[in-house]
Amino acid sequence: MPELPEVEMARRCLERWAKNRRVQKVIVHEPRVLGRGRGAGLGALAGARFTAFDRRGKNLLLTLQKGGAPLGLWSHLGMTGKWLLRRRSDEPPRFSRVELLLDDGAILHYADMRLFGRLRLVPGGDFGRLPELGALGPDPLRDGLDAEYLARTLGRVKKPVKLALMDQNVIAGLGNIQASEALFRARLNPLRPARSLSPEEIRRLKRGILDSLQHTLKKSQIERLARGAGDIIYVEERKSDRAKAAEGSVSDNPFLVYGRAGELCPACRRTRIVRVIQSGRATYYCPRCQPGARHLSPSTSRPRATRRLSGSTAR
DNA sequence: ACCCGTGTTCGCTG
DNA sequence: TCAGCGAACACGGG
Prior knowledge:
It is a single chain. By secondary structure, the chain is α+β, with helices and mostly antiparallel strands. It is built from seven helices and ten strands. The chain has helices at residues 4-18, 140-143, 147-154, 161-166, 176-185, 199-226, 242-246; strands at 23-28, 49-56, 59-66, 69-76, 81-87, 96-102, 106-112, 118-123, 274-278, 281-285. The strands form three sheets. The chain has a four-stranded antiparallel β-sheet, covered by helices on one side. Strands 2-3-4-8 form a four-stranded antiparallel β-sheet, covered by helices on one side. A hairpin with a 2-residue loop joins β3 (59-66) and β4 (69-76). α1 crosses α6 (199-226) and α5 (176-185) packs across α6 (199-226). The radius of gyration is 22 Å and the shape is elongated. Mean pLDDT is 86; it is low at 234-248 and 294-315. The protein binds a DNA duplex through α5.
């Protein structure tokens, strides 16, 4: 579920569900979500009241007050983590790992099938001391994106620009999907060394990143509204059958190139989207709209006797 | 049965 | 010392 837009949606939901609510009881079904090794447990949350809901990249930073002192709760959703609201009489959602019983009769469930996500108590609400946040790069939505910063940072990176974008210390919040989407919007080949980008391309990249994040966020909001805008979401995941398809277009791939290998590029409509593996992760792009670093020289323009390759599709 | 997966970390290698 | 990369983690879904 979680790249920046999804985590931001989770932040907004939590704020709506739990702001000024007091935690009455904490139930940990699966201690592994606290991280290996010790973990102070979450017991200290009992009696605390939610006051602030922040986010840095993919990290949720929740602040509570207990006896006049702040208390922090750090939440990272991993691959499949999500926060859900239920009533006490409800059946708990699948893979519920932790329950926070609130003073209004609701329960916040942290559900996470694959258990890659983590919850951790942060004494004093001092998130600055979390090693996970230490070297985090700027969050594009909270901090904006500075072209100067991008140029300076990427200028030192040899690895492919797609991998650089997924580095949380370069930019906080982009993951495998957003990296592909941003590069497509910027018309940049994901395989190019990050430091090979020109100032003009850096500007395109900045726009591509912001546009992709905004677009995905908007899509998430619309989808949420479409299914009732409710506080308690009963639409359970499992109806994976044709039931979902029959329900209409509510659950289509909302992305331009991600997951679209073999489909025609939505921009040029002439070339098929390609899927390649970079460091074990799938990358999607249009070879025509995002040409490789085939520049013979940094010279400005050239006649461009573009010769069309045949092949590719003999169908 | 086999491959794939919206994330991060760890260990090995050059 | 560090960049780069595959594996591991855990559990489905197609």
